[in-house]
Structures are given as structure tokens and as C-alpha cells.
Amino acid sequence: MIDLHSHVLPGVDDGARTLEESLDILRAAGEDGVTRLAATPHVRDDYPTTPATMERLVVALNAAAERVGLPVDVLPGAELDLLFAARLDDDSLRPFGLGGNPSVLLLESPYLGWPPLLPELVFGLRLRGFTVVLAHPERNPDIQKNRELLRPLVSGGALVQLTAASLDGRLGRRPQATAHALLEHGLAHMIASDAHTPDVRAVGMSAAAARIGHPALARWLTEEVPAAVLAGAQLPPRPEAPAAYGALRIPWWRR
């Protein structure tokens, strides 16, 4: 599997604090079946991680992982705050490209409220040659009430990335119900761990994939689409899920 969202770099945000914690996350990722992991530290006013810092730590972490025999390839990237990203020009944004693809940006969905200007921001980045990946919108209360707020963004080319812990219920019923509803209605494209530590909001990619109850769709979300994003290729066709969305479909009264 390919995990395109983690806070594995040590000492730059609210994720891993030390190199040992970073290696513990990589160890957990490898045991979960992850072969490539994007290090996506927060980039915002309270965590102003620079591309130079990110790149230095990615190199150091890969070297440390090789020394201890951890077969997980750490890739560069960032989780950009919406307003922070809007202030940057193209040359400043490209080094933060997701997984090292300079034309793909991972943006942090707001936790409260849904900015009316978000579609305009996403469309503007699209015109500038960037593809936007929206991280964890299922955790936003406005999206939980009205998933169709995502429709114009997805129609405009944005990709939606769900958190593994939402799908398997670790983040509560509302994020879980919303994540499954977004999948059912074609409004999600990837699953990622958003791992901060090995045990709190753990990797859990395989458990989330199992909760989907549809192996081909799970593979599309955890392998095929992330691989296409890294390669800058066209997304593969989405497998058709059964009408019942597997045995684990979320009842309508919990959506």
C-alpha cells in the first residue's frame, strides 16, 4: 500500500517528536503493509516548515530506516493550510508537492466551517497547474451534514483523501458514517493514515481497507490512485462497488 499522508518527520509539528518515534511509525507502517509513505508535515503559521527542512529530514529518515532494515520508502510532501497555500506563488508551492510530485498539493480541510471561497481557491490552483488533494474532509461538521459541498470541487478536479481512522471508526461515528457515504457516492479517491504516532491515530491502513468490504475498491484507494498521483498519471477507472456497498455499509440514520 501507499500512504500519502503522515506526520513522521521528527520535531517539526504535532507528529513524531524524535527520530526514534519516526522509526516506530515506519515500523508500524511496514507491518501494516505500507511500502511508500509520504512525510507531510503541517505547513502553516504555527508550523512554518520550510522545503529545505523537510528535504533534509526526509533524507535523514530514509538513511536511518535503511540502517535498521525498515523497508518503507519515505517521500517528501506537506499538508498545507488553505490560507497559507493561497499566499504562496508557484515556485514556493512546488517544493511541497505531494510525494515529490510538484504539481500535486495536499491541503488541510478545515475542522470547523466550510469556507465559501474554497472552490475558488481550488479552481485557481487548478488554473496554475496544480491538482489539489483535500485531506480528511469527512471530519468537518459541514461536510458531515451535507456531503454535496464536495461535489463542485471533485467535479473541478480535486481529489479527496480519507483518514484510515475515520473509516474504521476510531475517530467516532460521524466521521465514519461520512467517510463511507463519500465513498458510496463517488466523492473519495484515497485512504491515508495521517499517522502522528505509532499508537495514537495509528497507521491502520489495512484495517480501513478491510472495513470497505470490497477488495478491488480498497486496492484502488490504497494502491492504484496513490501510485497514479506519484507518477503524475491519469487516475485508473474506479471499480464498481455493489449497490449494497458490502456488508459494512453505514445505515442512513447514522450518516
Q: How many extended strands? A: 10
| Termini Cα gap | 28 Å
Rg computed from alpha carbons, rounded to a whole number of angstroms: 17 Å
What is the domain tally? 1
The helicity comes to 25-40%
Going by helix content, strand content and strand pairing, the class is alpha/beta
Shape: globular
**Tally the helices: what do you get?**
11
Architecture, according to CATH?
Alpha-Beta Barrel
CATH class call:
Alpha Beta
Q: What string, H for helix and E for strand, traces the elements in order?
A: EHEEEHEEHHEHEHHEHHEHH
Structure description:
The protein is α/β, with parallel strands linked by helices. The chain has a single domain, classed as Metal-dependent hydrolases (TIM Barrel). The chain has eleven helices and ten strands. The strands form two sheets. The chain has a seven-stranded mixed β-sheet. The protein starts with a strand and ends in a 24-residue tail after the last helix.
